[in-house]
Task: structure prediction
Amino acid sequence: MEALTRNGLPLPLSSLRLLVPPLRLVSAALWQVVQQRDVMDYGLVEEFVTTVLEIVPDMMSYRERVQLIMGLRAQLVLELCRSDHLANPETIQPHLNRMNTCIITHSDKEISDPEVEASESNFLKLIQTLLEDPVEKEHFFQSVFPEEFGPKYDSALQTLVWEFLSRLEKLLPAPTLQQTASWFLPDPSVLEECVECVSHPQPLKTLLQHHNNTCGHVDTNGRRNRLWTGNNVM
Result:
């Protein structure tokens, strides 16, 4: 993904990295994947979600966690099953193993949820059937898939992803300038490392020009007069 958008207009990723906190940039990219139904990238979304929820499980309820993680991975598995050249046990089994690990990990300290366990069991049986029976596979993707894994499923999954990303943003809001400055170590190399990102000025120029084109120039005359009266540096 080379560019996201600001005010509806695209900005190159190199410029966005200067403007947007890294975590929010990742969240926006993941949201775009789900919103556009780039199912083959759902594995990346699931890995990010799993990493966060393993450390902060209280962000979501047990059922929400499992539905989100398994829902993303299930869509990917079904997309693989739909493909003739990818629908084989060697390709599919690692994803099924990951789904099973998800259930075990997140149910370790939770009250057992029979509905969740039954859902996993039924899905495993479905995948086994799709891999072994071409007739059933054709029937499933023509008649069953659009109903059970179609728009309603996508909408429910998008809702869970959006809820996850919203809670993550509340958990780790972008710090203020003062907070950020207070966290720096008193090390000269910090400055060098930080300004390295603007050693090639074109992304910064693109960002500022984009701001001028979309928002107009900032009027600082009044503010400048208030600040400088009686406090001139020179």
Q: What stands out?
A: The beta strands are 3-6, 9-12. The longest strand covers residues 3-6. The mean pLDDT is 84. The CA atoms of residues 129 and 135 lie 10 Å apart.
